[in-house]
Amino acid sequence: MYAFSQELRLTSDESWPFEWIAGLYYSKDSIDLLQRLQSNDFLPLLTGLPPPIAAWQDFSQDTQSIAAFGQVEVPLGERLSLTAGLRFTHEEKDFE
């Protein structure tokens, strides 16, 4: 199992007449699991039968996500401002 994510942001400074932020985001993670599944040990005590055969669960999952985002805040007066933002995300998942 591993996970990686990274975000890059650019923001305005005081020299701009309005505030803005723009950025990119990336993440990738992977899970590989092999697990033994078996009923509890109390089942044979209650039924007198041997425990059921164990089952194995084996799977892997991979996820990759990419996003771009931005936001602008424009002052319209001393106590009023207009804020607008946008985000685009693309995600792929594989499960086996």
Explain this structure to me?
By secondary structure, the protein is mainly beta. Helices cover 6% and strands 68% of the residues. Strands 1-2-3-4 form a four-stranded antiparallel sheet, with no helix packed on it.
Low-confidence stretches: none
Give the CA-CA distance, first to last residue.
15 Å
Biggest sheet, strands in spatial order? 1-2-3-4
Silhouette: elongated
Query: What is the count of DSSP helices, taking H or I runs of 4+ residues?
Result: 1
Query: In percent, how helical is the residue content?
Result: under 10%
Secondary-structure map:
Blueprint: E1 2-11, E2 19-37, H1 42-47, E3 55-75, E4 81-95
Antiparallel strand pairs: 1-2, 2-3, 3-4
What's the quick description here?
By secondary structure, this protein is mainly beta. It is built from one helix and four strands, in the order E-E-H-E-E.
Question: Any key phrases for this structure?
Answer:
96 residues; four-stranded antiparallel sheet; 1 helix
